[in-house]
Amino acid sequence: MTQRLATARLALRARVPDDAESLFAAMGDATAMTWWSHAPAESVAALRERFIARDDGSWRTWAVTRADDDVAIGFVAAGEKRAGVIEIGYLLVPAAQRHGYAREAVGAVIDQLFAEGYRRVFADTDPENVGSNRLLEALGFRREGLLRAEWETHIGVRDTVLWGLLRDEWRGVVGRPA
């Protein structure tokens, strides 16, 4: 079950099928989906069916909303890979990017994951995804490696950069309420 989380400006809650309406601004947009392993959703209905309603429970996913309304502006997801190790992913709608929301939301989820006892959080990104690579570095992740030709995606075969963060390295994040 996805626990509700909060930061100074954001509320994170379980993602629900109705979030497809607002998340389509990102998940249906070719530019926003450039670095994802799958192509953009063709419609709100397809997004709802394929990515939201068909949740198999292997990932916990938080819808990111502004604290003053309940409209999803993005999401953060975490999937356990083995005992103590969890992968994290995230996406914001284009209008919500470059406001520091990703740092707040991802930071809140990392706080929660380490509080639950995970020892390691990791992410993988395309080497050309400058924004995501900068975010991970700003959060304290370390670049751990490059996997060549790792993903076959809608834009071709792509390399991936692996980023890792250990519980003992985590500094926390600004914007978290006391």
Name the features.
178 residues, alpha+beta, Aminopeptidase, eight-stranded mixed β-sheet, 4 helices, 8 strands, 24% helix, 35% strand, globular, GNAT_dom, GNAT family N-acetyltransferase, N-acetyltransferase, Acyl_CoA_acyltransferase
Strand tally: 8
- Percent of residues in helices comes to 10-25%
CATH class of the domain at 5-121: Alpha Beta
Annotation field: number of helices: 4
Report the end-to-end length measured between terminal Cα atoms: 24 Å
Order of helices and strands: EEHHEEEHEHEE
CATH architecture of the domain at 5-121: 3-Layer(aba) Sandwich
Instruction: Kindly report the spatial arrangement of strands forming the biggest sheet.
Output: 1-2-3-4-5-6-8-7
Biggest β-sheet: count, sense, barrel?
A: 8 strands, mixed
Name the average pLDDT: 91
Structural category is: alpha+beta
Tell me the name of the CATH homologous superfamily of the domain at 5-121.
Answer: Gcn5-related N-acetyltransferase (GNAT)
Protein name: GNAT family N-acetyltransferase
Domain N-acetyltransferase: 10-168
Pfam families: Acetyltransf_3
Structure description:
This protein is an alpha+beta fold and 178 residues long. The protein has a domain at 5-121: 3-Layer(aba) Sandwich (Aminopeptidase). It has helices spanning 20-27, 44-53, 101-115, 130-138, and strands at residues 5-6, 10-14, 59-66, 72-82, 85-92, 120-125, 142-153, 156-166. It has an eight-stranded mixed sheet with strand order 1-2-3-4-5-6-8-7, sandwiched between helices. A hairpin with a 5-residue loop joins strand 3 (59-66) and strand 4. Helix 1 (20-27) crosses helix 2. The protein is globular.
